[in-house]
Structure formats: C-alpha cells, structure tokens
Design brief:
The chain has helices at residues 68-81, 110-117, 127-140, 169-173, 183-196, 198-202, 248-256, 262-271, 274-279, 285-291, 296-320, 330-335, 337-345, 356-360, 381-401, and strands at 2-10, 15-21, 29-37, 44-49, 54-59, 86-95, 106-107, 146-150, 204-210, 214-220, 223-227, 325-329, 365-367, 373-376. Helix 1 (68-81) crosses helix 3, helix 5 (183-196) crosses helix 15 and helix 11 (296-320) crosses helix 13 (337-345). It has 2 domains: 2-150, 2-Layer Sandwich (Nucleotidyltransferase, domain 5); 197-380, 2-Layer Sandwich (Nucleotidyltransferase, domain 5), CATH 3.30.420.40. It is 39% helix and 21% strand. The structure holds adenosine monophosphate.
Amino acid sequence: MIPVLIVLNAGSSSLKFQVFDMPDGAEPELVWKGLYEGLGGSAHFIVKDASGAPLDEMTWSSGDPIGHEEALMHLVSWLSRFREERRPIAIGHRVVHGGDAFSKPVLVDDGVIQRLEALVPLAPLHQPHNLEPIRIVRRRLPGMPQVACFDTAFHQTQSDIATLFALPSGMRERGVRRYGFHGLSYDYISSVLKDYDPRLAAGRVVVAHLGNGASLCALNGGTSVATTMGFSALDGLPMGTRCGAIDAGIVFYMLREMKLSPEDAERMLYTKSGLLGVSGISNDMRILRSKAKGDVNAKRAIDLFVYRIGREIGSLVAALGGIDGLVFTAGIGENDVATRAEVMTGLPWAGFNLHEAANSAGGPQIAFGPGPTAWVIPTNEELVIARQTRSVLDAGQARLAS
Ligand code: AMP
C-alpha cells in the first residue's frame, strides 16, 4: 500500500483533485490529477496521469445526481482499487481566505473550522465551497489529517500601510483591509525563481498571474510587498468575468438608481463583467483573440485588459522602487503570446528588450537585458498545497517525537 497526499480544490459544482506520492527527502510527486464536474446534476469524473494521459472516467446520470460527499468517497475508493493500492494519509485543501489569523497553513480541527467559517462573509462566493469538503472528511473519514492552505497567507508579509484602506479605523478592526489572493501561485513562483535566475530571486519582481482570475504581485527578495487584489477577489485587474477595480460609487449607483438588489449587483460584478462583459462574447481569451480582427468589442476587451495590466504594473513598480524582472503565469500569461508582447511594448519606460522569437516559443526567458528581464513560468498551486500539507504533517510528527 502506497501512502499518498490528496490535494483538493472545491468549487460550487466541481471538485478538482491531485494525488501525490511522497518520496523520502524529495518533493511531493504528482501521480494522478482529475476532476469531478457537474456535481448536483449530471456529474462527470475524469482522471489523468502526471503526463496528462487519460486513465479513467465515469458519468452519473442527472436522475442519479451525486454531490461533493459522494464524489469524495468515490475518489477514496477509486484510489484503493486502481492499479497499486494507494492510501491517503492526509488531505490538503485550497482555502481562499485565512483572514488576519492564518499566515501559514494549519492542521484542521473543530476550532479551526469555526474560525474559517467566521471568514465566510469576507469571501462568500468561495469560502463555503472550500469548507464543505473539510467538513465531509471530518464526518466520513474521522482521524484523517487535513491541512488548510490559504490564498491570502503569502501576502501577510505586506506592510501595514500596503494593506490599509483610507476608511475610518473601526473598519480595519472589523477586518476590512487589503488581503490579496492567488498567494499559492505566487508562493510557487517565488520558490522557483532561483532556478531561473538567482539574481531575480533576490530582486524586485512583478508576477502577473493572468488566468480567468487575474492579479499582479510585487515580490522583493521573494516576499510579497504589494498586490492588486484587496479585500475581495474582485479588486485590481479586469478578469474573465470579474470587473477588477471600479469606483465604489458605481455600487451605490447600481443599488440606488438601478434598484439592483445587493445579490444582483454582486452577480454583475463577479460573473457578467471583465472580458465577458466588455466583449459581450466570451471570458475566454482564445475566443477573443480569434475574433479580435473583425469584432470591435472583442478588441476593446483585450485592449482594456492589457491597458489595465500596464497601469497596475506601474503602480507595483512604484511600490518596489524599480523592477528587475516580470514573470507571466497562469492560463493567459503562460499561453497568450500576444498579451505578453502587448503588455511589454506598452511599457516603453520600463525598458524591456522583448525577444519575439523567445516569446513565440513560450520562453522561459522572453526579455533579456540590459533592462529588466521577463519570463514565462508555469504556476503549480497544487504542488504548493502538497508541500505545505507535508510540512505541517512533518512539524506535527517532530513535535510528537520531541
Ligand atoms: P486559468 O484560469 O489559469 O485556467 O486560465 C484561463 C484563461 O487562459 C482563459 O482566458 C483561457 O482562454 C486562457 N488560455 C488558455 N490557453 C490559452 C492559449 N493557448 N492562448 C490564449 N489564452 C489561453
């Protein structure tokens, strides 16, 4: 029987998982990754090996719907049946919000669950889905160690001023501050920078996590000093369906003049805005790029995305006092050659020396000196969760042994 870690990332109707072997003294090693989608309706399960080759799949009919609980139990039983038996010894969860309290991953107990539940109002669209599998595991697999790994934690190194809103001080005491998100992705990039360029790892770097969710992070010597997302995952850059930073007055206008309910206003800002809202076509950059030549709205959506990235990079470079490197990551950052080129050519003051052939080839280095360098580095949030889960387990064992 091979002991493995399971990494879970739960959404409202989906459950993404990765399974890691834990070789002694080495990084956790991905063996399988997969997804349950359509939970609550006609659910589908697919699992692939580490190279992406499909291994197994299954579909449940809508007359026989399964939820997160059945999906999780199906996964545990699948692990014990498929090829060599693999037995989960711990589960690491992506949890979007750790609030002020959690600056590191934490072993889950009832007290931790209660404290994470209290953070639901800070991330109402994500936190409840992240907590559900944690509760299910406690009920169905009692004794299974679980570790919560937070998207906010990496940004806890930011200064008080960088996290403060200019609101009455009581609001800060209520927890209304800039937290920042995508921290698991930035943690990964920070951890591998030295493999690409040791000077970069010690320097001033802006990381552009450009996926369906998008944000930027300013790293100084590998730690976060500023980021574009704030109190919620709505702030900063326009995203696939989220608006990014907007004037707070617009929300009052929506509520008072348009008579939208808070729920409808929230839905518009989270799910109908961004690339989708501006283009009226899609939140998918591939589709927008394919239409941009003939469709003025597709082009405007892309132009706004690139323009806002450029302006926010300027803001983070000011916070860093200069820039030594720019890193592109996540779906758009890793794959969209044109977005990378447009962002860099839109920043002539920064002095990027873009190498077009290297950019078309996907890097990793796409701008060479004498100015700041630029890189394409694939992110790996699940590996960070696996690393963090293992380190929490190891620390617990060390405590027991001492
Ligand atoms: P993520 O949330 O990191 O999975 O990223 C999703 C975004 O990446 C979507 O907007 C996709 O259109 C975009 N994306 C994925 N592959 C490509 C590609 N080959 N070219 C351009 N955009 C891509």
